[in-house]
Amino acid sequence: MRPSTLHALQRAAELNRQGRFIEAVSIAEPAILAADSKECAEIRRWLADHRDDFADRKENG
């Protein structure tokens, strides 16, 4: 995955945790739309691996 795409996803996760969903989407969407098929697969894996980064959920041990 391109570093710029990874940065966009990480920033989107951060914004989403702050309750700034619209801003998060506006940052992530262009990176996702610009991705080729290989990068799309990497993005899907990253999103699956980091799904909790997009939620304000904390698991209690």
Written account of the structure:
- This protein has one domain.
- It has 61 residues and is an all-alpha fold.
- The mean pLDDT is 89.
- It is built from three helices and no strands.
- 69% of the residues lie in helices and 0% in strands.
Layout of strands and helices, then pairs:
Blueprint: H1 3-17, H2 21-34, H3 37-49
Features of the shown structure:
globular, 61 residues, mainly alpha
Shape from CA axes?
globular
Oligomer: single chain
Mean pLDDT figure: 89
Termini distance?
33 Å
Which consecutive residue ranges, at least 5 long each, have pLDDT under 50?
A: none
Structure, briefly:
Helices cover 69% and strands 0% of the residues.
